[in-house]
Amino acid sequence: MTKIAIVIQRYGDEINGGAETHARLLAKKLSIDYEITILTTKAVDHSNWKDYYSEDLEYIDNIKTKRFSCTSSKPDKKFRKYRRIILKRTKFQQLLSKVGLYSFFNKRKYFEATEKENDLWLKSVGPNSPELVEYIYTNKDQYDCFIFFTYLYYTTVEGLKIVGNKSIYVPTAHDEPEFYASVYNSTYKNAKFIMYNTSFEKKLIEANHKIAKTKRNNIAGIGLEQVNYNQQPEHNYSFKYLLYIGRIEGGKGCFELYDFFNKFKVSNPNLKLKLIFVGKKNPKLLPNNDIIFTGFVSNNVKQHLLLNCEALIIPSYYESLSMVTLEAMFEKKIVIANGNCEVLKNHITNSDSGFYYHNENEFYNTINKLMSLSEHELKQHGEKARKYVKQNYTWPHIIEKFDSAIKFIKNS
Question: How much is the pTM?
Fold first, then answer.
């Protein structure tokens, strides 16, 4: 049987990140016809990469999962320092920009990070797991194919250097500052096959990493299917609410959403609507009468909250696919998305369902429009949303694309 290793930065029941969940669902589907091994770290929290799991080996969904330690947590000062270097935003570079000389020096490659600086950045962003990388090197002949998730991380960049010749690379890239750093050029150079999540991601990568155009590739995304969960009475809220599901952090637009919604309720005190955040609590955001934080919840609870919300809201500026958006659409729920994110905006426009906003005023108008919809209009939005997902994101179609890519890797 063909042996495949899936390399992913975090993996487990306690993790609800998009790429991590994507990898887990894909692993379950591929395990029907292939022998799958997950290669990951012992970390849960991506902000420090501290070991959480103690076991080196466990079986999740009956799939072998090998875990490796990370050598250190993310040092904030060093992380910020090296981020400024790889993004070309040092104080000196900012000064040159103010006096109009930055472009002159940048065109002449004066600001390119050194190999050492790139390495220090990768170890800083993490997960810094030499054990995992060493395992890939030592056991590279034991697997027929390696599937790497997420362009950003140390394990992806270093792993592709070793087994790029038999790799399928799922970048999960989006239009964020780090995406443009030259340190990631090697991932597209080393990958044998690139599997994009969306046509927008393919266009973005090929426009900024020319080498990607020369690689065999396809667009797959993720599959959705009906899942039945038990009801959770402890979350049977009697009030109407908007729902956010995911990492609760500034980079996901949560601080802005928190601010927008608070201001909206001040202007609309009689509107009986609350906002619920589902995910690990962020100490910078505090609950109030209108905003609730559930913390991390089970899939049963998450599904129950999703099925009973007025709409799912995704405030992120940067997404490569957004699984939770597709999950909501599959369940015929309205999605309200940040229109500044092209991927999210495309889901809304291509499905002709849901809404998007670009600024605070549009956010207010969108909420008011949502609350004024009739039952018939709500049903229309729901039917269009599910139709869009079923036409574009079904597992048989996606697995067929991975089968073809794996066959290409084996025959190369």
Answer: 0.82
pLDDT digits (tens, 9 = 90+) for 160-177: 999 999 999 999 998 888
Three-state DSSP class for residue 376 = helix
CATH architecture of the domain with residue range 3-73+126-223+395-411: 3-Layer(aba) Sandwich (3.40)
Q: What does each C-alpha distance from 38 to 54, 193, 246 come to in angstroms?
A: 16, 19, 23
How, if at all, do strands 273-278 and 63-68 pair? unpaired
The count of residues in the chain is 412
CATH superfamily of 233-392: Glycogen Phosphorylase B; (3.40.50.2000)
Burial code of 69-93, b = ≥16 C-beta within 10 A, e = fewer? Answer: bbeebbeeeebeebbebbbbeeeeb
Residues of the chain with CATH 3.40.50.2000: 3-73+126-223+395-411, 233-392
Q: How far is CA 93 from the centre of its chain?
A: 30
Beta strands in 220-310 (DSSP E): 240-245, 273-278, 291-295
Average pLDDT over residues 3-7: 98
